[in-house]
Write a structure and sequence with these properties.
The complex is a heterodimer of chains A (about 170) and B (about 600). Chain A is mainly alpha-helical. Chain A is built from nine helices and no strands. Chain A has one domain (about 5-140). In chain A, α1 crosses α9 (about 160-170), α2 (about 20-35) crosses α4 and α2 packs antiparallel against α7 (about 110-145). Chain A is elongated, with a radius of gyration of 20 Å. Chain B contains 13 helices and 13 strands. Chain B has helices at about 5-45, 90-95, 125-140, 155-160, 165-190, 190-210, 210-255, 260-275, 275-280, 285-310, 370-375, 475-485, 510-585; strands at about 50-55, 60-70, 75-90, 100-115, 345-355, 360-370, 380-385, 390-400, 410-425, 435-450, 450-470, 490-500, 505-510. Classes of the chains: A mainly alpha (about 170), B alpha+beta (about 600). The interface of A and B includes residues 50, 73, 77, 80 and 111 of A.
C-alpha cells in the first residue's frame, strides 16, 4: 500500500498525462461502486488494461471507491429500485429482461442498476474534474506543498523515502 | 494513438480470463457436488451423498453418480439410491434462476438399501424409534386365529380370574368386617345387665311406697327419671337395630346378584376360547390380514416419505416479501414474462428401478416444485420388465397439487398372471396355512385426498392349492377345515382401506368366508355349544361354593339382629314394670 501511495505521488508529480490518471480514477469509480461480479466490469478491466491509464491510480481509486460504495449502498439500492419500478420504463426493462444477454448483465438487480447509473452519470464530470484538479495541483500547489512544514516532516518519513527510492530507480532506468 | 493503447494489457487480460475459465472448469464439479449434498441434506434432514458430479458447459448438463438419500428414521439405510442421473439444463431459463430439465435419465433406482455408515445429522430419539416399531407391530399383529379345538375348561378356569368369584370373595370379606363392627358396637349398647339393674331399681321403688308420704313423693320423681333412662337406652338399641337392618338388606341384595355374575364370565370365556360361527365368517381376514396389512403399511410409509418431494401440499411458490437487502447484494426485480414457470421443472424423467420384485422401467412427467404455477400435475407410468413369476405389472398414477387445498394423489397397480408359490398365510402352530400355488390377477386403486385414504384391492386367484400343515390325529373340526381348504380351487379376495392416512381401517372379504362357513359352520356351532355347557357347569359350581360361604357369613349378622331384638324385649319389660308402678301400681293417699 505504501508503495502504491508513493507511486501515486510520483505520478501526480511527474509529467504523466493528467487524463491517464483521471481516466484511471473514473474506471476505478465504476469498478468500486458496482458489484464486482457483474458483466460490465469485465469490459472495465479490459479497458483499464488495454488503454494506457495509470494502474496505480486505478488500484488506489478502486480501494477508495469500494469504501464509498459501502456508504452509498442504500442510496444505490433506492435509486436502482426507483428506476426498475418506474412505470414509464417497464416496457424497456421487460424487453431487456426477455433477452438472455441483458439478464446476464444483472441489470434487474437494484444495486447494479443504481450504482452503474451513478457511475455512468458521474463518469464524464469526474473525468473533467479530476483532470483540472491534477493540473491545478501541479501548477499551484506542488511548489507550495514542497515548502510546507508538513512536507518537510514527510520527507523524513519512510513513505517519502520509498517514494525517493522509486523516483531514483525510475530515473536510473 | 499509440500513446493511448497498451497492447500487452490485452494479452494480460486474455491470460487472466483464460486462467479463470480453466479454474472454473476445474472446480465446478466439486462445487456442484458439494452444493447438491448440502442443500439436499438440509431438505432431507439426513445425509444425502453423491459419489461424483460431472458438469458439462456445452451443452449445459450434469451427470450425478451414485446418489444416496439417507432414511432419516433409519440412518443406516438409504430411502433411495440411484446409480446415475443425467440431464441437460435449459441455459436460457437458468439465467432467470429457473431450472428447466427437458429430459432426465435416472438409472438403477433402488429403495431401502443398506449404508456403510450412519447418515444421521442429528441423534434419532430411541423413544421415537421404539414407538414407531410398536405402532408397526400393532398394525401387523392384530390378526389372530381363534381356537380350533375344544379347550379344556379346567385349564381355562385355572388360569383365568372369574369376576363372579371375586365378587363373592369381596362380599364375604365385607360381611365379615360388618360383623366385627357390629359385635364391637353390641358391647357399647345397653345389655341384659343394664336392664337387670333397672329392674332392681324398680323393685326398690316399690318397697319405698310403704315408707309414708315422704317416701311416696320421692319415689315418684325417681320413677320418672328411671323411665327416661330406660327409654333412652331402648332408643339407642332401636337405632342400632335399624342401621344394622339397612346394612344387612344392602348386603343381601348384593348376595342375590352373585348368581347372575357367572353369566358374564361364561360369555367372556366363551368369546375368548371358543371358535364361533361368527369368527369363521371372516376367515379371509385371518388368512390375508397380516400380509395385506403389512403391504398397505409399507405403501403408506413409502408414500409419506416421498410425498414432500412430489409437490407442494400447500402454498406453492411464496410471494416475495419486500425487505431491506443485505449490503452489497441488492434485490433482483423480476419483470413480466411470457409465461410464468416454476423454479424447478423436469418435463420427462426416464427412470429404471431395481426393486425387490424385479426391474421396473417408466417415465415421470412434470416433476416440479410448484404445480400451481406450472398448471400440470405430476404423472408417472411404470411397467415391470422380466419380473420373475409375473406376466405383467403396470403402475401408474398422478400427484395433483395444482390446487394445493384440493391436492389429490391417485395410484393404480395392475398385476397380471402372477404365479404365487409357497406363500405362508398363517404361521400359527395350531393351524398353519400355506398358499402352495396360485395364479393371481390383481388390481389396486388408491386415492389420497386431504390426508384421507380410499383404497381398494381386488384379487382373483385361480389354480389355487391351499394347504394346512397339520400332523396326524387332529380334532374333527380342524381336519374338516383343512379338507375344505384343500378343495378350494379359486377364490376372489377384496380389500379396502379407508380413513385417515395415519389411522385407516382395513377390511377384507372373500368367497372363502362362505365356503368355510358352509363346510364347517355346523360343526363349529355344535362345538361352541358343548364348550358353553361345560364352562357354565364349571363356573357355576365354583361360584356356588363361594356363595354358600357368603350365606354362612351373613347368618352371623342375623345373630346380631336377634341379640338386639332380645335386648329390646327385655328393656320393654322393665319399662312396663316402671310404668305400672307410676300409674296403676302406686296408690296415692289423696
Amino acid at each position: 500500500m505504501l508503495k502504491s501511495i508513493a507511486k501515486l505521488l510520483k505520478v501526480l508529480n511527474s509529467e504523466t498525462d493528467p487524463a491517464q490518471i483521471s481516466l484511471a480514477f473514473c474506471f476505478a469509480m465504476v469498478l468500486g461502486f458496482t458489484p464486482f461480479l457483474s458483466l460490465h466490469n469485465i469490459v472495465v478491466i479490459l479497458l483499464v488494461l488495454v488503454l494506457r491509464v495509470n494502474l496505480s491510480a486505478f488500484i488506489l481509486g478502486f480501494v477508495f471507491f469500494s469504501g464509498m460504495a459501502y456508504l452509498f449502498d442504500p442510496l444505490f439500492h433506492a435509486l436502482g429500485q426507483g428506476l426498475l419500478k418506474a412505470e414509464s420504463l417497464q416496457g424497456l426493462w421487460s424487453s431487456l429482461y426477455a433477452g438472455f444477454f441483458w439478464r446476464m448483465t444483472r441489470f434487474n438487480n437494484t444495486l447494479v442498476m443504481g450504482s452503474l447509473t451513478v457511475s455512468i452519470v458521474l463518469f464524464v464530470p469526474f473525468l473533467v474534474l479530476f483532470n483540472r484538479l491534477i493540473l491545478k495541483y501541479r501548477g499551484t500547489f506542488l511548489a507550495w506543498v514542497r515548502k510546507t512544514r508538513f512536507m518537510q516532516a514527510l520527507r523524513a518519513t519512510r513513505l517519502f523515502q520509498t517514494y525517493e527510492t522509486l523516483s531514483s530507480l525510475e530515473g536510473d532506468g | 494513438m499509440k500513446k493511448w493503447i497498451r497492447w500487452p494489457g490485452l494479452l494480460v487480460f486474455l491470460g487472466v480470463l483464460g486462467l479463470l475459465c480453466f479454474l472454473f472448469v476445474f472446480l465446478i464439479d466439486g462445487f456442484v457436488e458439494r452444493e447438491i449434498e448440502k442443500s439436499a441434506t438440509a431438505l432431507n434432514e439426513a445425509r444425502v451423498e453423491l459419489d461424483k458430479a460431472d458438469v458439462s458447459l456445452f451443452p449445459l448438463g450434469i451427470v450425478l453418480n451414485r446418489l444416496q438419500v439417507t432414511d432419516r428414521e433409519d440412518p443406516m439405510r438409504n430411502i433411495v439410491e440411484i446409480a446415475e442421473i443425467r440431464f441437460l439444463i435449459d441455459p436460457e431459463k437458468l439465467s432467470r434462476k429457473k431450472v428447466l430439465i427437458r429430459e432426465m435419465t435416472v438409472d438403477k433406482v433402488q429403495l431401502n438399501t443398506p449404508r456403510q455408515s450412519s447418515g444421521a445429522i442429528r441423534a434419532v430419539s430411541e423413544e421415537g424409534a421404539s414407538q414407531a416399531d410398536a405402532d408397526k407391530k400393532e398394525k401387523t399383529e392384530t390378526f389372530e386365529l381363534p381356537a380350533l379345538e375344544l379347550p379344556n375348561v379346567r385349564d381355562i378356569l385355572e388360569k383365568e380370574d372369574l369376576a363372579s368369584l371375586k365378587l363373592a370373595e369381596d362380599l364375604k370379606k365385607e360381611i365379615k368386617a360388618n360383623q366385627a363392627k357390629w359385635e364391637a358396637k353390641l358391647k357399647e349398647l345397653p345389655d341384659k345387665k343394664t336392664f337387670e339393674s333397672y329392674r332392681e331399681r324398680v323393685k326398690k321403688l316399690k318397697g319405698a311406697e310403704k315408707g309414708g308420704l315422704g317416701g311416696i313423693l320421692g319415689g315418684a320423681a325417681e320413677v320418672v327419671s328411671l323411665q327416661k333412662e330406660i327409654r333412652a337406652d331402648l332408643n339407642k338399641i332401636q337405632e342400632a337395630k335399624d342401621q344394622l337392618k339397612k346394612d344387612t338388606e344392602t348386603l343381601q341384595s348384593r348376595v342375590k346378584d352373585i348368581p347372575k355374575a357367572p353369566l358374564e364370565d361364561i360369555e367372556r370365556l366363551k368369546n375368548k376360547y371358543a371358535l364361533s360361527p361368527k369368527g369363521l365368517s371372516n376367515i379371509s381376514r385371518m388368512f390375508f390380514g397380516e400380509k395385506i396389512g403389512g403391504w398397505a403399511e409399507m405403501a403408506v410409509n413409502t408414500y409419506e416419505k416421498l410425498s414432500p418431494y412430489l409437490g407442494e401440499l400447500s402454498g406453492g411458490e411464496k410471494k416475495a416479501v419486500e425487505q431491506k437487502p443485505p449490503r452489497g447484494k441488492g434485490v433482483d426485480i423480476h419483470f413480466r414474462k411470457q409465461a410464468p414457470s416454476p423454479g424447478f421443472h423436469v418435463q420427462v424423467a426416464k427412470v429404471s428401478a431395481l426393486l425387490e420384485a424385479g426391474q421396473f422401467n417408466g417415465e415421470v412427467h412434470h416433476l416440479s416444485n410448484a404445480q400451481n404455477i406450472l398448471g400440470k400435475a405430476l404423472t408417472f407410468q411404470f411397467s415391470g420388465k422380466a419380473i420373475p413369476n409375473v406376466e405383467r405389472v403396470n403402475l401408474d398414477g398422478e400427484i395433483d397439487r395444482i390446487n394445493p387445498a384440493q391436492a389429490t394423489d391417485r395410484l393404480t397397480l395392475h398385476v397380471g398372471g402372477a404365479s404365487i408359490q409357497n406363500l405362508s398365510l398363517v404361521k400359527s402352530d395350531r393351524f398353519p396355512v400355506t398358499l402352495k400355488a396360485a395364479r393371481a390377477d390383481l388390481e389396486t386403486q388408491a386415492v389420497i385426498q386431504s390426508g384421507q385414504l380410499d383404497a381398494t384391492l381386488s384379487a382373483k386367484l385361480q389354480a389355487v392349492q391351499l394347504a394346512a400343515g397339520l400332523e396326524k390325529d387332529n380334532p374333527p373340526l380342524v381336519q374338516a377345515m383343512a379338507d375344505t381348504l384343500a378343495d378350494v380351487k379359486a377364490f376372489q379376495l377384496n380389500a379396502a382401506g379407508k380413513g385417515a392416512l395415519k389411522n385407516y381401517d382395513l377390511s377384507l372379504s372373500s368367497d372363502l368366508d362362505d365356503v368355510m362357513q358352509k363346510a364347517v359352520g355346523q360343526q363349529v356351532r355344535a362345538q361352541a355349544e358343548k364348550f358353553e355347557k361345560a364352562l357354565k357347569s364349571a363356573v357355576t359350581e365354583k361360584v356356588e361354593k363361594a356363595l354358600s360361604e357368603v350365606n354362612a357369613e351373613s347368618a352371623g349378622l342375623d345373630g346380631i339382629v336377634g341379640e338386639l331384638t332380645g335386648r329390646l324385649k327385655l328393656g320393654d319389660g322393665v319399662l312396663k314394670d316402671a310404668l305400672a308402678k307410676s300409674t296403676g301400681g302406686l296408690k296415692l293417699p289423696f
